[in-house]
Amino acid sequence: MNAPPIVGIDLGTTNSLVAYMEGDRPVVIPGEDGSNLLPSVVALDERGQIVVGNAAHRHLIEAPDRAVYSVKRLMGRGIEDIRDELSLFPFRLADDLLAGEVLRIKLGDKTFTPPEISAFILRQLKRNAERYFDSTVTKAVITVPAYFNDAQRQATKDAGRMAGLEVLRLVNEPTAAALAYGLDKKDAATVAVYDLGGGTFDISILKLHEGIFEVIATNGDTHLGGDDIDNRLIAIALDDIRGDLGIDARRNAEVVQAIRKSRIDAKIALSSSDAATLDVALPNGKRYQREITRAQFEQLIQPIIDRTVGPVKQAMKDAGLSTRQIDEAVLVGGSTRIPRVRQLVEELFQRKPHRDLNPDEVVALGAAVQANILGGRSEATKEMLLLDITPLSLGIEALGGVVAKIIHRNSTIPASATEHFTTGVEGQTNVAIHVLQGERELAEDCRSLARFDLKSIPPMPAGLPRIEVKFLIDANGILHVSARELRSGKQADIQVQPSYGLTDEQVENMLLSSFDNAEEDFRKRQVIEARNEAETILSALEKGRRNSAWDQLTSRERGSIDKQEAALRAVMQEDECQAIRSAIDVLNSGTMRLAELMMDSAVGWALKGKSMETADVGEGPASPHPLAKAEIEKGSG
Amino acid sequence: MPLTDDKHDSGILVASPSKSTKTNCWSCGEMRAAHFCQTCGKVQPPAPVDYFAFFGLPYHLNLDGPQLEREFYSLSRHLHPDVNAVRTPQEQEWSLQQSSSLNDAYRTLKDPIARTEYLLRLQGVHLEEQSTAATEEARRSGKAKKQVVPPDLLEEVFELNMQLEEARMNKKMGEPDRSLERELHDQKKHLQEKQDGLMQDLHRAWNDWDAVIDSTDSALEDDRGAVLQRMMDVLNQRAYVRNLLRDIDEVLE
Questions:
Q1: How much is the ipTM here?
Q2: What residues are paired with A468 via a beta bridge?
Q3: Which of B73, B86, B140 sits opposite A212 (nearest CB)?
């Protein structure tokens, strides 16, 4: 059996997807319910089990305190960063959080960090892929918004690790989309990717040339997306309800969620029709009803989508290009379905944007392409190479709180910079370096990444030690720092204090606990699934024995079925899923004639006016097959 | 830095001026190219070299941009971490180092100003106040940056700063002065012409520098310092003009 492919994962604010390369085409792997999209919702159900996706969606309405959505907004952020979000999102933070600590969110009576919650989503996607391939999946490429900073990237990578995935690469979402679009492109072109998703906005400008995808500029806003549109609509509805009906529903999480759902439905409807009606049941039997026209909707969202214009212009300026020099504009992200957004992009680039690929899926498809580039190098991708850039400048804090930039934004990654430091006091053995990310002049306006403490510098007169520090941003956009003292040649000891992140040890602990909490590992699950299938076919056989068709079999046929049945019952006691499956297959083909006879007699009965149900055909071993997998019938596996 | 003298398909035509020694590939033992093995394709351990030497280029300032880009793409196909993702951890580490050196070198060399500043630094010339390097250096040391006004700009700059100050005030009050704005537009045009002139000066200095590098005549060695000084002056003036243009743009926006 071939090793399962490396999967590509789009870990989205609203929905998440997993995809892989099937031959030379990327395809999305559906979940158990047959859907390509896994809602990025996590809930703790009544039995204390974690549920993800549609199963968790129900809790959003029924028990909002046990469910969380849009957790991507919290990745790599501290409590002081998210004050604004808290007024808009029903995140319930742990009560004992300290400033500078990694956030923890309450689900029922438990608390989880954002990477842990993301890990639940990733684990579900991993399982979906494992079901699909019928083998374990351990390696993945995960996409992140291009404008994610170091801490947000690191948090995403941590989430992958907690989910039991080796994250081979973090790929920027707009770049991934370009890979998916560029699969068939052979000509040189300059492409702009406009990616407005559920919670983030990115703009990337790329140069395509003989299979090389070179990103030349990127910009964005990691807190701008469909969520903001929803929140605006919800706020207006709540105002309406208070004004017209005199009910303050803001603290009523259930009502807010009901409004949220109806608002989202309306938003979607308004992309294709001119008006939509909202209808929400309120607690005291009253209803809130209102029609919203597309014109009203567009007026409402204008200030939000206008916020994408600044980043687009900056990216064009950084790329040194005019709109004329852009050959193609590509739309990515669910929010680009809104006609007004498409119109804006058309105005910005003076051309009709592409939307041939499903904007919800294109990022995952691109991640699958990148996974294939990394792992397999199939014919379709062997000439392809992605050269991405860092979205934000990296700097170090100098005297007076100013930032000295050492790696500028839009530098191709991996990128590095070497700096020299010395001591200011005689005999000083430590030097502290504060590393920041951002474009502003003052350290306090930039994003603090980490404080590095260079230790055990040999005691020397002030200014004599020469400490060389190398800052390296890897292909994931994540910073690595190493240092050595040049006079002694000693590798300096660096202690890292990440400003907003988990230490390796913390990740390790969460990894273990997530495995402890895991209901079963993949192998065990396989055995259980195989046993369930065996039970199904055995019970179908029991019914067959009571059917008149049984008597029409020869005694040899009956004897052989008995033996096959006994063999299956024997292997079912063991933990070998392959053995169970082959025994099922043997019994299945052995009972083929029985099934045919049952079918014949059922048809006969039907002609006599009897119903199909009484013939029990549906559960005969061969017709609607018990081996048919859970994709078709929920709850059979 | 081991570099081969001969032409090979990664396009490096000229050997580094430093002594070139051929080394064998750590993996297959064949003679290898500088950064990756031409026989087995494996990434080689990185060696500390300057950016010109990384590309196997002489220390010329006139540089064939499209050729450099082709070379960059070609080396990326061998050195990038994505190409080496399924190799051993050691090879992945070398790939990371080599690829970051490649990107750093390309970023510096493709930009005419960054390239000139880099060469000056290699030649031990310390850049003066207006350069980006000097700005960063001043920030790092916490010293206030000296503003050295190029002498032939002194008068205009004084006038311009007054106008800028007035325009900023107007802007703040929300009372734009059209005639002042027109004057600033004229100033802007004038400074852009000045900037173009400086670029031409720079190109002339490049030609002289390249001649010094190519020459075996020891008499030309004396020109070396003079050419470097000229380039430094041009860069300083250019940076000054650039800052003025930025200030005008801010006001006119």
A1: 0.80
A2: A420, A484
A3: B73
